[in-house]
Specification:
Elements: E1 5-8, H1 16-27, E2 32-34, E3 41-45, H2 49-59, E4 68-70, H3 77-80, H4 86-95, E5 100-105, E6 120-124, H5 129-137, E7 142-143, H6 158-165, E8 171-174, E9 185-188, E10 195-198, H7 204-211, E11 216-217, E12 245-250, H8 253-269, E13 274-278, E14 290-293, H9 300-316, E15 321-325, H10 332-343, E16 348-350
Parallel strand pairs: 1-8, 2-8, 4-6, 5-9, 10-11, 12-15, 12-16, 13-14, 13-15
Antiparallel strand pairs: 2-3, 3-7, 4-7, 5-6, 9-10
Bound molecules: threonylcarbamoyladenylate and magnesium ion (MG).
């Protein structure tokens, strides 16, 4: 493919001409990257198998890793989901449009190319107004994985999309920074008990309160129980990994900061370029070639917003070894730790 066009849009007053053109590209089988409240998505027509094939090719993504179908009206779900359990309707009423993806049984309208051959389909109604307008203009069903090269951190800025997919897709819609910064929470509603397959901004506690029933969290990790496939196929792949080696250091604050300082010093002495991921509170304790501050320690939402851009900056600064403080694992913190662990290939050291 040749050139990738770039168009800037304001969520508050969306240029209809640009959206119509973007919708036409998708209806004709092309690919358009667009902003959502979580991360940027790479959109193609979910009901055309050729579009899904193009998405996999552009991302360099294995085609057994299913795509999320994005819709802009509740009624539209009926065409793609065969059975709509009452829980799906309750969650949609409470949380859509928003950062929640639901797994449901699929209909024949969805080609197997879009769902990686599965009999289920992932559905989400995003909140970003540019995304909603685009989905409508594209015919109502937009398959959109995160708009990064497979394995890299998801894009939270249009520039990240350009970096990864420039020259491989038709158009990038720039709507500014993604306000959440981590991908949607995925909940599987095909069984008796809802199961979170990917933690996100919508937490287990929020889902339990809305549904009035317990919700499980799928504990599968890429190196988890042998021989058992993760229920969200995408979770088995190496993800978000920076080029340098990332290690998480766990323990109480004093031990963690001391250990990170020690490790950084060792690597610096060996002539390696070093990086640190830390909180505002601990920042003054460190020295390294590059330091990324995630925000105040207790502000998990700030960490979510900053993480992916930070991981990309270590690459552009050619950092060899990155050490990260651990983030506490409740609420949105669970989603931050989940992504950080994947980025680190589950390399975690206990500070003492
Ligand atoms: O926030 C988001 O969800 C973003 C934006 C663009 O909407 N999209 C996104 O898509 O993160 P992607 O393709 O990067 O991640 C989709 C995840 C993968 O881990 C995939 O395996 C899982 O959803 N998934 C998709 N369909 C599934 C299905 N039918 N059953 C289980 N997991 C599924
Ligand atoms: Mg992704």
């Amino acid at each position: 493919m040749g050139e990738t066009r770039f168009a800037s849009l304001e969520e508050a007053c969306i240029d209809k001409k640009v959206i119509e053109e973007a919708g036409r590209i998708i209806r004709n089988g092309g690919l358009v990257a667009f902003p959502t409240e979580t991360v940027y998505g790479l959109g193609g027509d979910a009901l055309q198998k050729e579009s899904s094939r193009r998405i996999y090719a552009a991302k360099g993504r294995p085609s057994d890793n299913p795509l999320i179908v994005h819709i802009c009206r509740w009624e539209d779900i009926k065409k793609i989901a065969g059975k709509i359990p009452p829980k799906a309707e309750i969650l949609a009423k409470a949380l859509w449009p928003g950062p929640l993806t639901m797994i449901l049984e699929k209909t024949d309208a969805v080609p197997p190319e879009t769902t990686g051959g599965l009999s289920t389909v992932a559905v989400r109604m995003p909140q970003n107004k540019i995304a909603l307008a685009l989905i409508e203009a594209a015919g109502g069903y937009v398959a959109a994985p995160s708009a990064n090269i497979s394995g890299k951190p998801s894009p939270t800025l249009a520039e990240h999309v350009q970096e990864d997919l420039g020259g491989r897709i038709d158009l990038i819609l720039d709507g500014g920074a993604a306000c959440i910064g981590l991908e949607s929470t995925i909940v599987d509603l095909t069984g008796d008990k809802p199961v979170i397959l990917r933690p996100g901004y919508i937490t287990k506690e929020m889902l339990e309160e809305i549904l009035g029933c317990p919700v499980d969290v799928d504990r599968m990790s890429p190196d988890g129980e042998k021989g058992k496939a993760p229920r969200a196929p995408g979770m088995k792949y190496r993800h978000y990994a920076p080029e340098g080696q990332l290690t998480i250091v766990s323990g109480n604050e004093t031990d963690v900061t001391a250990m990170i300082c020690r490790l950084v010093k060792e690597k610096m002495r060996a002539g390696e370029r070093t990086g640190i991921i830390c909180s505002e509170e601990t920042r003054p304790l460190y020295q390294a070639d590059h330091i990324e501050v995630m925000g105040p320690r207790e502000d998990k939402e700030a960490a979510a917003r900053h993480l992916y851009a930070a991981l990309r900056r270590f690459d552009s600064r050619k950092i060899d070894y990155i050490y990260s403080e651990e983030f506490s694992g409740n609420g949105v913190g669970m989603a931050v730790m989940n992504r950080l662990l994947k980025a680190a290939g589950h390399r975690i050291l206990q500070a003492k």
